[in-house]
Every structure is written in C-alpha cells, then in structure tokens.
Amino acid sequence: MALLLMFVTLLHLITLAMLFIATMEKTWWVWDDSKLSDLWYNCRLDNSTETWLCTSTKETVWLHAVQVLMVLSVVFSAVSFFVFLGQLLTMSKGGLFYFTGLCQVFAGLTDFSAALIYTLHNKDILWDSQKLFSGYFGYCFILAWVCVPLLLCSGIIYIHLHKKE
C-alpha cells in the first residue's frame, strides 16, 4: 500500500509540474529556432544580443479559452494535491479519495479541452503570425497532450484508493 501511495503521489507531482511547464513556457508553436509562440507571447531571438524579444499575443476568443482551460487544469491539479495531503492526515481508515480523484479527472478534462481547442483552432489563434505551414507544434503542446492520460489515470486511481493505516 505504501508503494502505491508513493507512486500516486509521485505521478501527481510529475503531472502537476508538466502542466505548469506546458502553461508557462514559450513553445506551443515553433517556426524555427529563432521564432516561437506560446499561450501568452510571440517571441523571436535577436541574434545580435542573443536575447528573446517577446510581444503579447493577439487576443482571440480561442486563445482565451485555451489560456483559461490550462490555468484551470493547473488549479484543479494543485487543489487535488493539497486535498489529498489533507485527506491523508484527517480521513478515517477505509475512506476513499473521491474529491481528490474528481479534481484530477477535471484537471485532465480541462487540459484535454485546451489542447484540443489549440489543435483545431491554431490557425485562428496564430492568424497574425507567420505562415503556419512552415511551423510545427512545440514541446509544451506535446506536454499538454501527454498530461491528459496521466491526469485521467491518476484520477481513477485516486477514486479507487482506500486509506489504510
């Protein structure tokens, strides 16, 4: 039981870190090594100073939806972790971690929705940027998709997990 508990806790922390990185980093869309776009900024590398010059992304309805859903996913996962820690200390023997599991499932569903919207509407989100056919999805976008099954699996594990002494 202790091994399962450590595994679930580690999985939760890993997915929370991956979600945070996917939400805050600069590589949701990449044109080349010197031009990137994320949920918050469009950046280009200034070769003379070797610094990133970033401007705010143009606000679109789809971009706002992705931003809100990714932030909600991070919040649901963080709340889930803190509730889990509280339940470990206060829950009676044999109790189930329903609330923790539901928060993780909601985090997975909001992450799924955000990644799906970005996938389907990246032309609308990046409409003012360079031509899309010359770019590709970045690692933060891939991290968001990888988090979906991990969050859903950990949520299901939490729902079935019993507290033992």
From TrEMBL:
Signal sequence annotation: none
Cellular-component GO terms for this entry: plasma membrane
Membrane-crossing segments per the record: 61-84, 96-116, 136-161
PROSITE patterns: PMP22_1 (PS01221)
Gene name tied to this protein: LOC106524173
Keywords linked to the UniProt accession: Membrane, Transmembrane, Transmembrane helix
Pfam families: PMP22_Claudin
Protein name, entry field: Epithelial membrane protein 3
Family per record: Belongs to the PMP-22/EMP/MP20 family.
Membrane topology per record: Multi-pass membrane protein
Keyword Lipid metabolism: no
InterPro entries xref list: PMP-22/EMP/MP20-like, PMP22/EMP/MP20/Claudin, PMP22_EMP_MP20
Subcellular location(s) of the protein: Membrane
